[in-house]
Design a protein that fits this description.
Length: 215
């Protein structure tokens, strides 16, 4: 980003405009260029070890989307949005996944597999630790969600992070088990409806002195 672009970009205003959109304008759709940028924001999201234990399912099929409000606590955002993103954890985090990641590092950076043995061993050691791998992968999905929300706001796209849905039903409707993943959190993307009164409400946040600790 150039200096001029930095001067013209006000992150605070962008994030102040962002809100959990309650009603989407179903007639407005993301254009291809905007969609690609949002997809790339997910691909570039941070993750522990860089392991990316996730899959991102973009749902645009109207017939499938129409089934989802019944399994989303009656919320219509998954149906009315332009693109519904279902952020999923992979079914299993195993040594094969780590080996694929190590191969990707080697090919991308032009280094040998031997030079990565120590890093590979550290990650495989993590697999043997007593921590809950499913819980760990789900936490990674929320890192990706945060990246997506910020990217959408920067592009003027509205979004609504949602935990209020039946994950088992979503998995079944979308065939996620067969795709090697399970839904964790969903995020409808699109553009707010003119009559969504929540868009006009002032954002309510604690003051910095209430929640920021400087040491």
């Amino acid at each position: 980003m150039t200096t001029i672009e930095k001067e013209n970009f006000d992150l605070t205003n962008v994030l102040t405009r962002r809100y959990a959109t309650k009603k989407f304008d179903s007639s407005r759709k993301l254009d291809d260029a905007t969609y690609r940028q949002l997809e790339n924001s997910l691909l570039l999201s941070a993750s522990s070890f860089g392991l990316q234990p996730w899959k991102f399912v973009f749902v645009t099929d109207p017939e499938i989307k129409a089934q989802l409000p019944a399994f989303s606590w009656g919320q219509n955002q998954p149906q009315d949005c332009s693109h519904l993103v279902v952020i999923c954890r992979i079914s299993e985090l195993n040594e094969e996944h780590i080996d694929r990641y190590i191969q990707k590092i080697a090919s991308t950076r032009g280094v040998t597999l031997e030079s990565l043995e120590s890093y590979s061993g550290m990650m495989k050691g993590f697999l043997k630790s007593p921590s809950d791998k499913i819980h760990w992968m789900e936490k990674q999905c929320y890192i990706a969600l945060g990246t997506l929300l910020t990217a959408a706001a920067a592009l003027g796209v509205d979004a609504c992070p949602m935990e209020g849905f039946d994950a088992k039903a979503y998995d079944q409707i979308l065939g996620l088990s067969e795709k090697g993943c399970h839904s964790v959190v969903v995020c409808p993307l699109g553009y707010r409806a003119e009559d969504d009164h929540y868009a006009k409400l002032a954002k309510v946040r604690f003051d910095a002195e209430d929640i920021v600790i400087k040491i």
